[in-house]
Amino acid sequence: QVQLVESGGGLVQAGGSLRLSCAASGSIVSSNVMGWYRQAPGKPREPVARITPGASTNYADSVKGRFTISRDHAKNTVYLQMNSLKVDDTAVYYCNAEVKDSLLRTYNYWGQGTQVTVSS
Fold first, then answer.
1. Which residue, among 25, 33, 35, 71, has the nearest Cα to 53 in the 3D structure?
2. What confidence score (pLDDT) does residue 1 get?
3. What CA–CA distances, in Å, run from 51 to 41, 48, 113?
4. I want to staple 91 with a disulfide (CB 3.0 to 4.6 A). Which of 19, 38, 58, 119 is the partner?
5. How many helices (H) and strands (E) would you count in the chain?
6. What's the average pLDDT block by block, 10 residues per block, for the chain (120 residues)?
7. CB burial class (10 A; 0-12, 13-18, 19+) of residue 95?
């Protein structure tokens, strides 16, 4: 069973920075697609960033140039560096792992979420 634990959320003023961390149980961060999603009140959960086993990254248009996803294989941890934060970035941020088994079936795992609040 994969467990993901996020940390690093908090309250920050617009223009500020935060770094989110997602600690995974087991050595999965380098061999599976890892991603960050967010959900604002009254809105559906949306993808923010993802990193593939080959280290390719993808970002939502709204965060390109401001957010960076990275991983540390030794620490089994994925990070989301968020710079130039905007009020619209306020949401609960969730870590996601798309884990494939030996039959290449994909299982999605989620963390519990961490609140990011950006004040004006």
1. 33
2. 83
3. 26, 11, 18
4. 38
5. 0, 11
6. 94 98 91 96 97 96 98 95 98 96 92 97
7. buried
